[in-house]
Design brief:
Length: 303
């Protein structure tokens, strides 16, 4: 009985810490996620630079969104991430800890391979659970309506289900791209963070220790973002509005990557990289630091 209580307490700590980390991160960093999506779904062929729907970069996108859609447009599509991120991050950190035990391979302590494989498993699990929210979020983020004209999250969700159902053409559209994106990201993110954190000595000074964790977390998020972005672009193209209404151009993950490469060049696979890095670099640091501190806090409270 004591063992069961210990496991449940540790699960509650992991879930509470992960959920808190996700909530804080999404509230702060969502505008950059929106800019990333707008840049990724833009093919750039049929739009001129003077067109309000054409964005030449991050600041141009923010300027035009503010001018034509208002300040609140920066938080379009934030409800699905808020609803998803708290349980999503809770699942991510909780399953990471469980997978970590599975991938010890007889070693008395976790190795870099353990952290990487556990991160991959956590990312795949997270992706499957969160993909429906991603479909709704991208649909809302690509909508250029202003203020009250913007449909609600619930209206968009019902319309997707009514039109395309719950399957791979509807709420689970692009799930393989989400799995590839999240799996690769978390494999690098957790693998790098925990491996490097174990090699770099801790500081007794709380300020220096905070800077150490932020620095490692920022590097982890940045490196993972640079490696997985082609799958992120494919995901945005699959889940976003198709170039020709009624015709599905972007279908499979690898097919979309190849199509973007052929039509728009290699660099098109890295569209939205800067806002992604600006979001997930500090965002990755925020999550890991909040998780670590919340884990310490909750452990003390539930002791």
């Amino acid at each position: 009985m004591a063992d069961v209580k210990k496991v449940l307490k540790e699960a509650a700590i992991q879930i509470g810490s992960g959920g808190s980390a996700g909530f804080v991160e999404v509230c702060i960093m969502h505008p950059l996620d929106l800019v990333k999506t707008r840049l990724q779904i833009q093919s750039g062929k049929s739009l001129t630079k003077n067109d309000p729907k054409h964005y030449s970069g991050i600041f141009d996108c923010l300027r035009k969104m503010y001018k034509y859609e208002g300040l609140t447009s920066f938080w379009k599509g934030i409800v699905p991430p808020i609803l998803a991120e708290t349980p999503k991050r809770a699942v991510k950190f909780f399953t990471f800890e469980q997978y970590k035990q599975f991938f010890m391979f007889g070693s008395p302590t976790p190795t870099p391979l353990t952290f990487s494989l556990a991160g991959l498993g956590a990312g795949v699990t997270e992706a499957i659970l969160v993909n429906p929210f991603e479909v709704v979020k991208v649909t809302l983020q690509s909508n250029r309506a202003v203020g009250k004209e913007l449909p609600s999250t619930w209206v968009v969700t019902k319309e997707i289900v009514r039109t395309d159902g719950l399957g791979f053409k509807g709420l689970n559209k692009g799930v393989t791209a989400t799995i590839a994106r999240n799996g690769l990201f978390n494999m690098v993110y957790f693998g790098f963070y925990h491996s490097v954190k174990g090699y770099l000595p801790e500081f007794e000074d709380p300020v220096k220790e905070f800077i150490r964790k932020v620095g490692i977390g920022f590097t982890s998020g940045t490196l993972a973002s640079c490696l997985n972005i082609p799958f992120d672009v494919a995901k945005s193209r699959i889940q976003g509005p198709q170039p020709v209404p009624g015709q599905i151009k972007y279908k499979s993950t690898l097919g979309s990557v190849v199509l973007v490469y052929k039509e728009e060049g290699f660099m098109a696979l890295y569209k939205g990289l800067l806002p992604k890095v600006l979001r997930l670099g500090p965002g990755g640091a925020i999550m890991l630091v909040v998780y670590d501190y919340m884990h310490t806090f909750l452990t003390a409270k539930l002791a």
